[in-house]
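Incident review: delayed structure delivery

Summary: a single-chain prediction request sat in the queue longer than the usual turnaround. Root cause was a stuck worker, restarted by the on-call engineer. No data loss occurred. The affected request and its eventual output are reproduced below so the record is complete for anyone auditing the incident later.

Affected input:
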Amino acid sequence: MPIQRMDNVLIVVDDLDATVSFFVELGLELEGKGPIEGRWVERVIGIDDVRQDVAMLRTPDGHGRVELAKFHTPKAISAEPKDAPANTLGIRRIMFAVDDIEDVLARVRAHGAELVGEVAQYENAYRLCYVRGPEGIIVGLAEQLS
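Output delivered after worker restart:
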């Protein structure tokens, strides 16, 4: 078996503190935060003179992680419009299962998040929505129906 598990997803951001707060409000737990630099990271990512701050957050079940990185050097670049639509090539969103979609929406709206479309029901199985949070990050929320 070549893959053991999915370890984490990296999101490069400009405002690390605001993005950490958003994901903590969603229910992720901050594992740690600190600077990353040195030849080893330069060799791994193929960029010289790297200096960044990284925050690692984990899902409550402990199986999934989101890594947030703010690059100080070299500065991060944007490859697409800030608020790219869902059909833009590349990774578009991260989806989380939630117990109460309305409660989560109320909490993340306090952090500036906005619905991308609307809350919709898929058959008798799920209520779903996309939320655009800090940095234009799209997060999907899925509430399983009984």
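Verification: DSSP finds three helices and nine strands in the chain.
Action items: add queue-age alerting; document worker restart procedure.
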